[in-house]
Inverse folding.
């Protein structure tokens, strides 16, 4: 009888150990799946970047083809080669100046923050704010974070070569990839799939066109304004504002920080004027460019845009924030075409049936 109880206890211990190891194995498998999914998601974002590059090349090729009546092949060659030639010329004339100004901004940023803190401490309310947030560790961390951000603001896309090559490959023969996607669909869904692909392409072209126009206009307008004011590192500040214009809602506010902080080292009035320049420029560009974007993009609720930016930023950092809007547009188009419209058609059919009966 004692032997039977011992065997029973041993069997229960073995069963418990097996359950523990099974639980550990399941948790480890879930962690591996999550890590793989995150890597796959980052890869998906790189593919989306390559797709946007291809959309840009094809959009420019369409414009060249319409204006010059050249063949599609030559229009695409001019589009790709002309873009790289324009980039090379821009870097040739402005690359050294931009690099010097980026270095100056990175080196002067700690002094600028200290100067801002000194001016803020003179005000009673500002002094209380500094006392609340001040601390050696938090202060140093803020400086290091800001300095790192502005010194790497032109290197957000770390895998830019891969993205460019993907964009070129997608541009050379896009029908291969489009037909490959359509092959995965049933025969009766191929027309719908082609329609969805074309609608997504049109939406991405509209977003890209509006974004590029906004970036160029903001950069040019602020460069002229800051140069006229003789503000230090004017070109870099304008470029930062133009690049951050890609990010709705948060980009405009983030772009103002370095310019206003730098202007505070000159005078308070200069900082106020610089802040007004940012606001006026962004308002003018927003009123001109936003209607162009809205004509091509579906109407996205602002709250949904902010939520997608926060979610994408948490998952993939800066690249996720930049691509949040086009990715949200793609998701909304897919939901509209694959779920909303069929549900409406089904409901309409039921209503017509009831009326007939």
């Amino acid at each position: 009888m004692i032997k039977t109880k011992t065997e029973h206890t041993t069997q229960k211990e073995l069963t418990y150990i097996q359950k523990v190891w099974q639980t550990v194995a399941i948790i480890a498998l879930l962690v591996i799946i999550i890590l793989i999914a995150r890597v796959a998601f980052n890869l998906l974002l790189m593919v989306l970047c390559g797709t946007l590059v291809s959309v840009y090349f094809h959009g420019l090729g369409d414009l060249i083809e319409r204006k010059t009546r050249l063949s599609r092949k030559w229009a695409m060659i001019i589009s790709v080669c002309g873009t790289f030639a324009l980039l090379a010329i821009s870097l040739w004339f402005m690359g050294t100046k931009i690099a010097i100004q980026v270095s100056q901004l990175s080196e002067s940023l700690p002094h600028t923050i200290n100067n801002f803190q000194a001016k803020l401490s003179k005000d009673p309310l500002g002094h209380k704010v500094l006392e609340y947030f001040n601390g050696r560790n938090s202060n140093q961390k803020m400086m290091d974070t800001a300095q790192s951000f502005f010194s790497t603001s032109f290197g957000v896309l770390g895998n830019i070569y891969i993205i460019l090559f993907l964009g070129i490959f997608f541009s050379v023969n896009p029908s291969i990839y489009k037909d490959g996607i359509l092959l995965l669909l049933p025969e009766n869904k191929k027309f719908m799939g082609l329609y969805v692909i074309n609608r997504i392409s049109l939406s991405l072209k509209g977003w890209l066109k509006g974004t590029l126009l906004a970036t160029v206009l903001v950069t040019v307008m602020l460069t002229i304004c800051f140069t006229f004011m003789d503000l230090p590192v004017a070109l870099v500040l304008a470029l930062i504002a133009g690049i951050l214009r890609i990010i709705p809602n948060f980009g405009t506010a983030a772009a103002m920080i370095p310019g206003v902080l730098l202007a505070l080292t000159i005078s308070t009035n200069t900082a106020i004027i610089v802040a007004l320049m940012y606001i006026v420029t962004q308002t003018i560009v927003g009123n001109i460019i936003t209607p162009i974007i809205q004509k091509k993009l579906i109407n996205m609720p602002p709250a949904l845009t902010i939520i997608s930016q926060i979610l994408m930023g948490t998952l993939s950092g800066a690249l996720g924030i930049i691509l949040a809007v086009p990715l949200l547009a793609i998701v909304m188009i897919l939901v509209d075409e694959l779920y909303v419209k069929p549900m409406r058609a089904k409901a309409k059919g039921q209503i017509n049936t009831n009326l007939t009966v």
